[in-house]
């Protein structure tokens, strides 16, 4: 007898969940626990660093091992008389918000592993020692740590497939569709959190290059474009190299610093975008020129 398609997908969900729990066990109960023990006894690495690397992996492991996996297993054992998984996945969805913290922390965690492996040979040796074990399947700690980051999109794909294959009159249809919507919202939530964090990090780097002037540093600003530009001086018919940063609310007209200590640029002029006008020039001597005029003043610039 051919198994119905939706049951195959539900079984795949169960099988991948079992493998996933094994991976979480490895991260939490093996890597985290042993590195923590070592941090407490030896001088390999500060406890704080180990905690920062593994973020909230323990909560994620406990949740999957003690709640979601057993519930899913129970559902699959009863499948023949009660073919449904939608309700269990609805219970799972709100807890997936825990992943936001782990995912946001992931890049930092990988950087910490690299930095402390260089700083502390015993730390590196312990990781290498665990990685040699059969349970690691020749994969690095970083590789195993990527798994939780990829798990939510995996749920989303499997569930989408499951809903698509469900017969119209299936008792699980309503629940499964609602579960899919919930998972979709969580996935969006964690992607938005990552995007926002990246935006703030990039913004911070730009502020450092500009020398952190109080009136410029604002977390709500958005950098739209930056790049070198030539300033045309009409007085002596020459050009000089300048640099522009265009934000959503202001244009910063800067001069690259010769001695690069601290800031890379000096802000010469700040123009509000509000009320700013840009007009293309038809200048035969200086092609690609345009005029930028704001409340503060007017600039004649030449692009590359």
TrEMBL record:
Domain of life: Eukaryota
Pfam families: RhoGEF (PF00621), SOS1_NGEF_PH (PF22697)
Domain DH: 5-193
Cellular component, GO, one term: cytoskeleton
CDD domains hit by this protein: RhoGEF
GO BP annotations, alphabetical order: cytoskeleton organization; filopodium assembly
Domain PH, residue spans: 222-304
Protein's UniProt name: FGD2 protein
Organism (species): Erithacus rubecula
């Amino acid at each position: 007898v051919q198994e119905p398609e939706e049951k195959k997908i539900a079984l795949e969900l169960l099988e991948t969940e079992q493998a996933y729990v094994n991976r979480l066990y490895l991260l939490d109960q093996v890597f985290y626990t042993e590195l923590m023990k070592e941090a407490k006894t030896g001088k390999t690495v500060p406890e704080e660093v180990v905690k920062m690397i593994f973020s909230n992996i323990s909560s994620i492991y406990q949740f999957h091992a003690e709640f979601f996996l057993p519930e899913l297993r129970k559902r699959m054992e009863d499948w023949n008389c009660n073919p449904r998984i939608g309700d269990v996945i609805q219970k799972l969805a709100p807890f997936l918000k825990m992943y936001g913290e782990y995912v946001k922390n992931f890049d930092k965690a990988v950087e910490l592993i690299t930095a402390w492996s260089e700083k502390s040979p015993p730390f590196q040796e312990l990781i290498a020692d665990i990685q040699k074990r059969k349970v690691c399947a020749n994969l690095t700690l970083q590789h195993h740590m990527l798994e939780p980051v990829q798990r939510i999109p995996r749920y989303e794909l499997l569930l989408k497939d499951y809903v698509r294959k469900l017969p119209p009159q299936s008792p699980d249809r309503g629940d499964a569709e609602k579960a899919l919507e919930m998972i979709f919202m969580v996935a969006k939530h964690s992607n938005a959190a990552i995007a926002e964090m990246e935006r703030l990090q990039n913004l911070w780097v730009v502020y450092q290059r500009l020398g952190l002037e109080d009136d410029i540093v604002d977390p709500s600003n958005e950098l739209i474009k930056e790049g070198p530009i030539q300033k045309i001086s009409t007085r002596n018919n020459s050009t000089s190299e300048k640099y522009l940063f265009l934000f959503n609310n202001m244009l910063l007209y800067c001069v690259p610093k010769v001695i690069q200590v601290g800031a890379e640029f000096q802000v010469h002029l700040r123009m509000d975008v509000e009320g700013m006008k840009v007009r293309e020039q038809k200048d035969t001597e200086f092609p690609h020129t345009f005029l930028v005029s704001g409340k503060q003043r007017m600039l004649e610039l030449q692009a590359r």
